[in-house]
Write a structure and sequence with these properties.
alpha+beta, elongated, disordered N terminus, about 55% helix, Alpha-Beta Plaits, Immunoglobulin-like
Length: about 600
């Protein structure tokens, strides 16, 4: 028995497919003004692990299932051929054109079969064919769909890829798609132009500074921009339209090379050998690993190269981000900018890798995460290099200033010696004055009570008698019954009583008054402020009242009173000795009168 011809099988499949498609799901109704209509929730998926199924067999198959597990049609790295089924019907009032765009440009091959009762139309695209062979001239796989009012078709879409199988797609009306496409081309051109401008600017900067980190940065930017150009489909459309094998491999090679250069750049830019030796060695291991990944991307299987490139990119971003934090913590110049830049790239790389493995949904953010993150990273790293350049300028200016200072040092030597000698003399003078002040303090203060002593009192009287500007009043104070305190409690308690009495006298006088201890239990207060007899009597009463307050000692309470003799400086007073003698006679008169009272000296 002869086997059915291909035409018979195709016609049988068409009929079975139409019946199965219309029976399985309601068709997607198109109104004519669709904008970014996501196809994930609308399609059914069939896996073909061996890749042997033809259209007729797929149309007759009953293994299609809704894409519930992959609503964004991102299937990660898979060797399966995938078939998508989408029935559509036009509800537009006139013949209308639509466009179906697959948003990931590096899918190897996509074929669309539009089946209707009038037959079948086939279109194809993908980065494994020459650009001129694509059914629609666009950087992404794009397919045209034209329907008459009420016309029904079932779309069977066959996709295979050695890279990530990301089939996220959208349906647009022709008018809206043109505006969307122009915006996307503009954004991608802006990205490439920015990368080239940064590379050229820093290349010129390298020609002046000859700093290795700048050259590494230029290499990183060019490799990364080349990979993104391949990923977005711009390279296949404008740079290598006929070298599809080269362009397909260039995606993995560009990202692997940029990761290798980034690891070397981080070691140089951060000076990890000095700031983080342990991380320096770890980055060295990472460099070797990236070199191996690059060799696989150049010579090895494409799928393995893509998988190693994606995983290595995430690992690279995490490690460089971590070492940047460590170096920033340890004060490495420019490390904070690198951390911020690598955070942007890390975020983009992680989203892209997770989307490539099918672990997160494919959307506008995840689809463009790598270009957006890398653009921010390139700009920030350029700022970092500019900051490094400014630091070099500052260091050069400092070196020139040091040279100028060295040239002037000989002229300044004599002056510096002079200034040093004068400073030493001044310091020694200050030390001597401080020592003299301390000696004077010791010589003019009573050691027990802290009051002025006889020496200080005599000095004060000499100056007072030379100028005679202020009307002095002298109060000579003698403690009543102090000998009894010494006899009963001992000289130790007696000294404590004297110190307490001295404190009370000092607290009773004014800030310009002089309180002194003549010796034993005799004290003197000289007051230039008390100009009237009433004021002097008030001062005398305050002193006697303060002294008369009980004084607590170890074995009880001591009661002390004071007899005070008051004498004033007048024109007939010859000297301090005479003044004190008059006050002493007045004090003695107070004691004879019973003590604890004040007595004024007679004119």
């Amino acid at each position: 028995m002869r086997r059915p011809s291909f035409l018979c099988r195709l016609l049988t499949g068409l009929a079975a497919g139409l019946l199965a498609g219309w029976a399985a799901a309601a068709p997607l109704e198109l109104q004519g003004d669709e904008s970014d209509l996501r196809l994930g929730p609308q399609v059914d998926v069939l896996r073909d692990p061996d890749g042997r199924l033809g259209l007729a067999e797929v149309m007759a198959a009953d293994g299609f299932a809704p894409a519930r597990d992959h609503p964004d049609l991102s299937f990660g790295y898979t060797a399966d051929v995938l078939w998508l089924r989408l029935p559509v019907v036009s509800r537009a009032p006139r013949t209308q054109a639509w466009r179906i765009e697959f948003e990931y440009a590096t899918v190897d091959r996509i074929e669309v079969y539009a089946v209707s009762d009038r037959g079948m139309e086939r279109q194809r695209s993908g980065d494994r064919m020459r650009f001129a062979e694509r059914s629609y001239a666009h950087r992404n796989p794009v397919f045209a769909l034209q329907l008459d009012p009420g016309e029904r078709r079932t779309l069977y879409i066959r996709a295979e890829s050695q890279g990530t199988m990301t089939l996220s797609s959208a349906l647009w009306s022709d008018r809206r798609f043109r505006a969307h496409s122009e915006a996307q081309y503009t954004a991608n051109a802006l990205y490439v132009g920015t990368a080239l401008a940064l590379a050229l600017y820093n290349l010129l900067l390298f020609s002046v500074l000859r700093e290795r980190s700048i050259l590494l940065y230029v290499g990183f930017v060019l490799c990364f921009a080349t990979a993104v150009t391949a990923m977005t489909g711009l390279g296949a459309q404008f740079l290598w339209p006929n070298a599809f094998e080269f362009g397909n491999r260039l995606l993995g090679v560009g990202f692997a090379a940029s990761s290798l250069l980034a690891a070397i750049y981080a070691r140089t830019y951060l000076d990890t050998a000095r700031h983080a030796p342990g991380w320096h060695r770890l980055l060295g291991v990472l460099v070797v690993a990236h070199a191996l990944v690059l060799s696989v991307a150049v010579f090895g299987p494409l799928r393995l190269g893509f998988q190693l490139m994606s995983g290595g990119g995430v690992l690279n971003a995490i490690l460089i981000f971590s070492v940047g934090i460590v170096c920033a913590w340890r004060g490495a110049p420019g490390a904070r900018i690198l951390v911020l830049a690598w955070f942007a790239l890390l975020f983009g790389a992680m989203l892209t890798a997770l989307r490539n493995f099918g672990l997160i949904p494919n959307n506008v953010l995840t689809a463009n995460a790598m270009p957006i993150g890398s653009a921010l990273e390139m700009l920030l790293l350029s700022f970092g290099l500019a900051a490094r350049f400014n630091e070099l300028k500052r260091q050069k200016a400092e070196a020139q200033a040091q040279l100028l200072a060295a040239q002037q040092a000989a002229l300044q030597t004599a002056r510096e010696h002079e200034e040093t000698l004068a400073r030493h003399v001044a310091e020694r003078t200050e030390q001597l004055e401080a020592a003299n002040a301390r000696l004077h303090e010791l010589a003019t203060r009573d050691a027990l009570t802290g009051l002025a002593n006889r020496v200080a009192l005599e000095s004060y009287f000499r100056e007072a008698f030379e100028h005679r500007r202020d009307p002095l009043r002298v109060l000579l104070i003698d403690l009543d019954g102090f000998k009894h305190v010494n006899d009963r409690y001992g000289h130790g308690v007696g000294d404590r009583v004297l110190a307490d009495v001295a404190r009370r006298i000092r607290d009773s006088v004014g800030h310009r008054d002089i309180a002194a201890r003549l010796g034993g239990d005799e004290f003197v207060v000289v007051t230039p402020e008390a100009r009237s007899e009433i004021a002097v009597r008030a001062l005398s009463d305050r002193i006697r009242s303060a002294v008369a307050q009980p004084i607590r000692v170890d074995d009880g309470v001591v009661h002390i009173t004071a007899s005070i003799g008051v004498a004033g400086l007048d024109a007939d007073t010859a000297d301090a000795r005479e003044l004190l003698m008059r006050a002493d006679r007045a004090m003695y008169a107070a004691k004879v009168s019973g003590g604890n009272r004040s007595h004024w000296a007679e004119g």
